């Protein structure tokens, strides 16, 4: 059963797994019973999380068997719960390329006026190109746009557009995958072959790989940037239990 589970997890894309998550919700409590790890999103405890990742990049003990959240989802949720007004204030929210593990929960929140946007996903309310968002200035209190900037042609232009639709005083989260051993963004527009892109940027459809300079890229688009370092905010025993990615920092962007 365990090897079948592992096989399914590595062959079936995670968005589809999430749609089948009732299967995991049924089996997980029996298979993974224990209290070594805890998911901050569903608040369930397990002996261990499931492994996740393709080929050489597989990471052990990271995928919540109940709601299929990964390290970055648990980190963002922890910030939203403990440090933000996201669950308390009445907020107008734009969620670009919405994470499947979040969007139903966010949509059900009574305090949110919640809209999703994407270039083409049928799940999204609005469809548009981030380089030129067909919406007025100063509309949203909160904007989420995670794991998108590494795909777009002109990232700073897209960031400027997100800043433009945010209200003054608004905030957002625009996470990206980063190589924390790099200090600059690695970008080369001549690399267009999917196999080459995977080799150079980490995934077949990525067009750049950010480094520790990412907050400066956000600043260059006009955002104020704040860093949420969970190592400083939480007890070691807690973040070890939540299994966050060791070097991931969450950047909160704000509009003056
Ligand atoms: Zn969970």
Topology:
Blueprint: H1 2-11, H2 14-19, H3 21-31, E1 37-38, E2 45-46, E3 50-52, E4 59-63, H4 71-83, E5 91-96, H5 100-108, E6 112-118, E7 126-127, E8 140-145, H6 155-165, E9 166-173, E10 186-187, H7 194-201, E11 208-209, H8 214-220, E12 224-228, H9 230-233, H10 236-242, E13 250-254
The chain binds zinc ion.
How would you describe this protein?
The chain is α/β, with parallel strands linked by helices. The chain has 2 domains: 2-69, no CATH class; 88-228 and 247-254, 3-Layer(aba) Sandwich (Rossmann fold). Helices cover 34% and strands 21% of the residues. It contains 10 helices and 13 strands. A 7-stranded mixed beta sheet has the order 7-6-5-8-9-13-12, with helices on both faces. Strands 1-2 form a two-stranded antiparallel sheet. Helix 6 links the parallel strand 8 and strand 9. The longest helix is centred in the N-terminal third of the chain and has 13 residues, at 71-83. It is globular and about 50 Å long. The model has no long low-confidence stretch (mean pLDDT 91). Zinc ion binds next to loops.
């Amino acid at each position: 059963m365990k090897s079948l589970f592992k096989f399914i997890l590595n062959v079936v894309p995670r968005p589809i797994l999430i749609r089948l998550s009732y299967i995991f919700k049924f089996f997980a409590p029996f298979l993974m019973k224990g209290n070594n790890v805890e998911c901050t999103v569903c608040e369930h405890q397990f002996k261990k999380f499931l492994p996740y990742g393709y080929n050489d990049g597989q990471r052990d003990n990271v995928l919540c068997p109940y709601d299929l959240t990964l390290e970055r989802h648990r980190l963002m949720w922890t910030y939203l719960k403990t440090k933000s007004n996201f669950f308390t204030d009445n907020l107008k929210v734009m969620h670009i390329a919405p994470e499947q593990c979040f969007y139903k929960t966010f949509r059900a929140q009574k305090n949110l006026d919640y809209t999703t946007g994407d270039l083409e996903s049928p799940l999204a309310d609005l469809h548009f190109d981030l380089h030129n968002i067909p919406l007025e200035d100063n509309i949203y209190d909160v904007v989420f746009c995670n794991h998108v900037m590494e795909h777009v042609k002109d990232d700073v232009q897209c960031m400027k557009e997100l800043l433009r639709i945010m209200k003054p005083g608004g905030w957002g989260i625009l996470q990206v995958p980063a190589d924390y051993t790099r200090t600059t963004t690695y970008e080369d527009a001549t690399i267009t072959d999917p196999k080459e892109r995977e080799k150079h940027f980490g995934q077949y459809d990525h067009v750049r790989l950010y480094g520790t300079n990412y907050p400066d890229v956000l600043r260059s688009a006009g955002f104020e940037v704040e860093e949420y370092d969970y190592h400083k905010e939480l007890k070691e025993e807690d973040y070890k239990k939540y299994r966050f990615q060791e070097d991931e920092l969450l950047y909160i962007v704000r509009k003056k």
